[in-house]
Write a structure and sequence with these properties.
P-loop_NTPase; single chain; kinase; mainly alpha; Depp_CoAkinase; nucleotide-binding; 2 domains; Rossmann fold; 9 helices; 186 residues; Dephospho-CoA kinase; two-stranded antiparallel sheet; two-stranded parallel ribbon; 55% helix
């Protein structure tokens, strides 16, 4: 959360790497396969055949139990989209695929990765970035953070680490290093 995953994923994408964005998949699912099950679980949160994010946010109201309920609906759908993306990339001959998965360790998805890149930053920078988001409160941030695997644990299980706290140029160099290292393995 607010570590720079999406920005770093864009760096891979600019280099021609196939990148699957789980957040984008959620947005697409909110206009498709997730609409009906979410409406059943949270009546009144859809409009015009899609999930209304503002209404859904109000229904969740920072309640971690409700968020977990939503995740039980959405995570399997995202995983299916991720697998579909990977299969299509393989058919297209992509030598490397990047899967931008915000809750990689929390969902156990790291188990089916060949290589794990953890994007990180200092706790102070993360807090600043998160609290700058519209509607975010210190209390909600702390609740969300408590549900995540600690960053130190994620870094310990990573094959590569990109620290976005050192700026864009440093992250770009890290991306190049990772691509050289992983290309040598292919």
């Amino acid at each position: 959360m607010a570590m720079g995953k999406s920005t770093t994923a864009a760096m891979f994408r600019r280099r021609g790497i196939a990148v699957h964005d789980s957040d984008r998949a959620v947005h697409d699912l909110y206009r498709g396969a997730a609409v009906e099950p979410i409406e059943q679980a949270f009546p009144g949160v859809t409009a015009d055949g899609e999930v209304d994010r503002k209404k859904l946010g109000a229904a969740l109201a920072g309640d971690i139990d409700q968020l977990a309920r939503l995740e039980k609906i959405v995570h399997p759908l995202v995983r299916a989209k991720t697998v579909e993306f990977g299969e299509q990339a393989a058919r297209d001959g992509a030598p490397i695929v990047v899967l931008d998965i915000p809750l990689l360790f929390e969902t156990g998805a790291e188990q089916w990765m060949d290589c794990v890149v953890v994007v990180t930053t200092s706790p102070e920078t993360q807090r600043e970035r998160v609290l700058a988001r519209r509607g975010m409160t210190e209390e909600l941030f702390e609740k969300l953070l408590a549900r995540q695997v600690p960053d130190a644990d994620k870094r310990r299980h990573a094959h590569f680490i990109i620290d976005t706290g050192f700026g864009f140029e440093a992250a770009e160099r890290d991306v190049e290093t990772i691509l050289r290292a992983t290309s040598a393995l292919i």
